[in-house]
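Structure request: Maleylpyruvate isomerase family mycothiol-dependent enzyme, Nocardioides vastitatis.
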Amino acid sequence: MTTIDTIPRITRGGAAERLATAAFDQLLALLDQLSVDEWDAPTDCPGWTVADMVGHLLGSAKSYASVREQVRQQMWGFRHRREFDGNPLDAINALQIEDHRTLAPAERVAALRAAAAPSVRGRMRIPAAFRRISGSVAAGGSTAAGMPSRDTLGHLVDVIITRDVWTHRVDIARATGRDLPLDPETDGAIVADVVAEWAGRHGQPFELTLTGPAGGAFAQGDEGERLELDAVEFCRVLSGRADGDGLLGVRVLF
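Returned structure:
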């Protein structure tokens, strides 16, 4: 049983760069398997096909590889947020999808492969002074109810963007019926960090058993609620993709 305070958290000085790179590698390995027809499959994100999801991921990768591109997307999102229930992130996501609308599947994969490494390097290069900046997380739009209302830039670039890539790989595998190989060194580390963040948000005692290659047994305090579910499903619940109540109704950012 792993206690929460012994979970290695994902940080720039720790595993952030390795996990960010591995998450892109896993995603690209999945995309390489897809047939042309599978790119039109609907995903768990309402209104998004696999192609849309990859367009979003490609736009996100480009934004962290280039300051100019980051500014362009942020300004567009700010100007158009009212069209998306006041949520500038939804506006940016829509721009990312539209920017890559005309790319064929092979072109999307090639562009994402080219952008992945520069994106990770760009995220890791952000200075400490900027990493400490805290900003609000937009509510409304597609944001799941109960998400944290603020986050730091450092946590965003070290952890949340990697979670986004990881979770969308899960979405794409589910949409296409493809196998989802899981590696304890990568997937397990990402899931464990989610567990630690979730435990810190609610602060209640619990015993949690997550099944599957990315899982483990975790505890906080004594005589807490006992929970058992699949590790990937646990993350889907906490991201708002599946229903959860009690402690499983506490969200974390994805």
